[in-house]
Amino acid sequence: MRGRLAVALLGLCGLLAGCASTVSGTGHPAANATKPGGGPSASAGPSRSAAPDDSGRQTLSCGGSKISPAGSPYCFTMPGGFQDVSSSVRVDASIGKEKYRSAVAVSSQDLIIISVYELRRSTDDISDDTLAGELTQVLQQLSKQGFTFDSTTADKTTVDGARSFGYHAVQDSTGLESDVYFLFRGRNELQVNCQWKDKESDISRGCKSVLGTLQFKTVQ
């Protein structure tokens, strides 16, 4: 599984972390495209204007064929039919404070990437509206880099009790599509990027599985 694509590394601007941009990268397979909205949905949760009462998770206990980088605050069960390509997903540069990355794939351009960014402060007392505003700035930057979003209004759900903001996008230059989910708990932002070129149904199934088995530990 080899490919060369533009890699979108996303972090919140200003309030929480450094601004994001798009850089050229080499992936084996490749990581890319941020896509909001309409993809597989996580467990539904109410829309909120204030920060939630999320006591968080202190331990991880994923079963089956578990993916969990050493020292990371998350784990999930690898979807059936996917292979672990975490060690072969590479980029030429990183933006912000990405601490962990893992990936599972069914082909070089059809894969799911999970990344964790360390933020400057805890998000637990930050409202949904404020977080959504920060994410809107990220999407505006990516739009200038050739990404088209269905909507800049997030699909707000919860994953493992953590707040999740979902979007769907297309990268104009390659036609790659993605559903991307930004999860917030404590001082970590976890992103689940479900990207496809030819195997939309496989990625949709795999994305639902990852979101359904994902456990995300609180780090303050």
Give an account of the 3D structure.
It is a single chain. 14% of the residues lie in helices and 36% in strands. The protein is mainly β. It has a single domain (3-42, 61-216), classed as Mog1/PsbP, alpha/beta/alpha sandwich (Protein Transport Mog1p, Chain A, 3-Layer(aba) Sandwich). The strands form three sheets. Strands 5, 6, 7, 8, 9, 10, 11 and 12 form an eight-stranded antiparallel beta sheet that branches. The chain has a three-stranded antiparallel beta sheet with strand order 3-4-13. Strands 1-2 form a two-stranded antiparallel sheet. It is globular, with a radius of gyration of 16 Å. The model is unreliable at 1-11, 17-51 and 91-95 (pLDDT under 50).
